[in-house]
Design goal:
There is one protein chain. The protein has about 425 residues and is α/β, with parallel strands linked by helices. The protein folds into three domains: about 5-30; about 35-205 and about 400-410, 3-Deoxy-D-manno-octulosonic-acid transferase, N-terminal domain (Rossmann fold), CATH 3.40.50.11720; about 215-395, Glycogen Phosphorylase B (Rossmann fold). The protein is about 45% helix and about 15% strand. It has helices at about 1-20, 25-35, 40-45, 60-75, 90-95, 115-125, 135-145, 170-175, 185-195, 205-215, 220-230, 240-250, 270-280, 305-310, 330-335, 350-360, 370-380, 385-395, 400-410, and strands at about 55-60, 80-85, 105, 125-130, 150-155, 180-185, 200, 230-240, 260-265, 285, 300, 315-320, 340-345, 360-365. It has a seven-stranded parallel beta sheet, sandwiched between helices. It has a seven-stranded parallel beta sheet with strand order 10-11-9-8-12-13-14.
């Protein structure tokens, strides 16, 4: 009782804090505005839906990419079932609100007894799938009360998580709401078994299936084709200011047969303008491309949604985020093409980033000097193929998680 009281207070305080900051924070404003009249909106949209429904919940965009292979496999194998997709974060919902792989895409109402009850009354799922480990007590307990099978997919756990601490009793209770849990590795399975949770399977990470499939669906980009023709190319994907500073420092000493394509994580107008100033004289902007820009050394991509397509043009890929607290971004999108990968020093919280280094498909750098050295070494004709092959082989060796989930999921849809 004390735990649930504290939980409700914490959720209430969080929601209040978001509301207070919304006039000053664009992301908080989206969070608040997106939930105005939300339950009525969901109820109205689903009122005439006669098909059986599966509900998938993702915290944000990263979790969506992990859940997406399962969602698309459901759509293919069970086309008669309607899919309801929810997001907690604006960074997921705003990007994927028009995603055509789901029949309905909504924000998830803030967790509370009333919201969970009203939401479940409207959605009436036959099956629920949570991705990774964003768990909500009232939604999960409501699913249990209604005897709705609930799966957790692509989960990964470490001893640092609250589930395994003295204060984590409510978190452990939430884990016990799941009909089955699919984890990425054996360590996660052992940790769960130590707290009495045995309905666990090691399936791997569904993101590997996602990038393997997506790499076969990329399209040619004429601007990139023209810009890169005859040159070696380092693509800096999902770059942050710390990453962009490194490239500014090495640009003058980067061999003349190399070019750079910068794909910033943040493409708002102010950040794009700052990069244009930073690389003044050397940079062409994607959205304002002119034929004479082919002579520039840096191509600045100021639109979203193209990174997976662009990595195919890379000789070497640099993945951004490795100088920030959250760590390096998705390394698999480049590795799947057999591209040698480089990233900053904050990567060890990601299994795949560590594994790529261990197998010889990637390097970590911490200065402009080590970045330049890594580009020259990994992009040389004598080592390029070997390093790229190691990266590609690692990705393909980890495929198959989606099929394992779907085999189990089918038991609930018969």
């Amino acid at each position: 009782m004390i735990n649930t009281t504290l939980y409700r207070l914490a959720i209430g305080a969080y929601a209040a804090g978001i509301k207070l900051s919304s006039p000053f924070n664009p992301k908080a404003r989206l969070f608040v505005d997106g939930r105005k009249g939300l339950l009525e909106h969901i109820t109205t949209n689903l009122a005439q839906e006669k098909r059986a429904r599966i509900w998938m919940h993702c915290a944000s965009l990263g979790e969506f990419e992990q859940g997406r292979p399962v969602l698309e496999a459901i759509k293919e194998q069970y086309p008669q079932i309607a899919i309801v997709l929810t997001f907690f974060s604006p960074s997921g919902y705003e990007v994927r609100k028009n995603y055509d792989g789901a029949d309905y895409v909504f924000y998830l109402p803030v967790d509370s007894p009333h919201n969970a009850r009203t939401f479940l009354d409207a959605v009436q799922p036959q099956l629920c799938i949570f991705v990774k480990y964003e768990l909500w007590y009232y939604y999960l307990s409501g699913l249990v009360e209604r005897n709705i099978p609930t799966l957790l997919v692509s989960a990964i756990f470490t001893e640092k998580h609250g589930f395994f601490k003295w204060y984590g009793s409510l978190q452990r209770q939430m884990l016990k709401c799941f009909s089955h849990i699919f984890v990425q590795d054996e360590i996660s399975k052992v940790l769960l078994q130590q707290i009495g949770i045995d309905n666990v399977s090691v399936s791997g990470d569904t993101r590997f299936d996602r990038v393997i499939k997506a790499s076969g669906e990329v399209t040619a980009l004429p601007i990139a084709t023209t810009f890169t023709d005859g040159y070696k190319v380092v693509i800096a994907g999902s770059s942050w200011p710390a990453d962009e500073d490194l490239f500014k420092k090495i640009l003058k000493t980067l061999p003349a047969d190399w070019k750079v394509i910068l794909v910033p994580h943040n493409v708002d107008a102010a950040h794009i303008a700052a990069i244009e100033t930073q690389f003044a004289g050397d940079v062409a902007k994607w959205s304002a491309w002119k034929d004479q820009d082919v002579n520039k050394r840096v191509l600045l991509v100021d639109t979203v949604g193209m990174l997976m397509h662009l990595y195919k043009y890379a000789t070497v890929a640099y993945i951004g985020g490795g100088f920030g607290r959250a760590g390096v971004h998705n390394v698999l999108e480049a590795a799947v093409y057999g591209k040698p990968c480089i990233y900053g020093p904050v990567y060890d919280q990601f299994i795949e980033a560590t594994a790529l280094i261990d197998c010889g498909g990637a390097k970590s750098v911490n200065t402009a000097t080590t970045l330049l050295s890594a580009i020259n070494e990994m992009g040389s004709d004598s080592t390029l193929g070997k390093i790229g092959d190691a990266a590609r082989a690692y990705v393909y060796s980890k495929g198959g998680a989606t099929a394992k989930v779907m085999t189990h999921l089918g038991k609930f849809l018969q």
